[in-house]
Amino acid sequence: MKDIVSEIITIGTEITLGKIIDTNSAFISQELIKIGITTPIKSSVDDNFKRISQLLNHAIKRSNVIITTGGLGPTEDDITRNVIAEVFNKKLVLHPEILGHIESFFKTRGYSMTENNKRQAYIPEGAIIIPNPIGTAYGFLIEINSYLIFSLPGVPREVRLMVKNFVIPFLEKRFSNFLSFVEIRELNLAGISESKIDHLIGDIIRKSENPSIGLQTSDRRIKIRIVAKSHARSEAIELIKNAERIIIDRVGKHIFSEGDTSLGEVVKKLISINKLDFLVIDGIKGVLINSLNDIQLGIVISKLEELSLLFPDVKLKPNSFDPKIYGKEITLKMAKRFSKEIVLLVTAESKEKDDKTEKMKVYITLYFKGETNFKEYNFQGDPQQNCERAATLALFLLFKRLRKEFGNSFLNS
């Protein structure tokens, strides 16, 4: 048998209208990949009989495992069970076990069951019941030839429980001889653009199959994700390590962590381990201090003039202002006054601004044990994103200096 491939269909007009966010498919695909089952296709569809039917018919032509969520409630628009029964030519059959659970569910909560709840006790003939201990909507599993169709309710906490308690154990048992071990390594980068990374490792990405290599970008970091599959876990790990060595060789100076560890967390850890006294002067709306998740590390200012109140001898001259000289003077004086080994100053000037975009000039000064480093950047875009980009660049400047001082040990062994 080839690799097991799954497909997820989330059903509900509230999803397609954007009234709620689909978290179910993300959770399910994360659980499936842990046992070596990939989910290359996800779909969302409204409560429409014809469109759900079309999706199911397409799904069974390309996937071994189909998982639907939603549409198993008691109301007229909960039609998933009816569609599945018709698509696979099955009758809907009343299950006393399910009906008894629903009646007990309402009774223990002091409510009486309405007649429409009885609809939830019907599932396609021959289907396997998937218990739902915390809700009234039981799920079910239909097996057609080599295809498995799991139908689950739409409530996220119910989905999580049913996937962990039934779906994953069932798949592990059914496909025990075919499932692969999956290893995932995520490398976090800063101080480099996505296009530059692609230029440096694009050839590896294009040729990658196992392990597969891809990029994911955000305002705070860029991730390089490496995914390897093998029937032996040790082989999957070795595939990851081989790819990682090549990537580190090409872009290692921009990598600051693995997994979900943020740049702020890395910087705080390095400062704490090495017992350094650190001060932040945040002139970008508190975004830098928030990145460190510690308000005690510094002060937030709204304009440069506020610092002049602390140091009257450092004069701001608007017509001849040199941010590099000013930043050096201020960080040096702050370090002396507050006995700090590190001072990180970030200030910004808004050049042009409307309701949605802003041209911002950012000045970053790092004082580190008697040395100063100055950087200047120009941003254009959403004001909040501009501040987040500035915070990331400031922290990465500090991270590089810490790495130079204390070694390159930011990756797990």
Give a verbal description of the structure.
The protein has 413 residues and is an alpha/beta fold. It contains 13 helices and 17 strands. The strands form 4 sheets. The chain has a 6-stranded mixed β-sheet, sandwiched between helices. The protein has a 5-stranded mixed β-sheet with strand order 14-13-15-16-17. A 4-stranded antiparallel β-sheet has the order 10-11-9-12, covered by helices on one side. The two termini are 35 Å apart. The mean pLDDT is 90.
Give a brief rundown of this model.
The chain is an alpha/beta fold and 413 residues long. The chain has helices at 13-16, 24-34, 49-59, 80-87, 96-107, 156-174, 194-207, 233-251, 263-273, 287-292, 305-310, 323-338, 383-406; strands at 5-11, 38-45, 65-69, 92-94, 122-124, 128-130, 139-144, 147-152, 181-189, 212-217, 222-230, 255-258, 278-282, 298-300, 342-353, 358-368, 371-381.
Write the layout of secondary structure elements.
Blueprint: E1 5-11, H1 13-16, H2 24-34, E2 38-45, H3 49-59, E3 65-69, H4 80-87, E4 92-94, H5 96-107, E5 122-124, E6 128-130, E7 139-144, E8 147-152, H6 156-174, E9 181-189, H7 194-207, E10 212-217, E11 222-230, H8 233-251, E12 255-258, H9 263-273, E13 278-282, H10 287-292, E14 298-300, H11 305-310, H12 323-338, E15 342-353, E16 358-368, E17 371-381, H13 383-406
Parallel strand pairs: 1-2, 1-3, 3-8, 13-14, 13-15
Antiparallel strand pairs: 4-5, 6-7, 7-8, 9-11, 9-12, 10-11, 15-16, 16-17
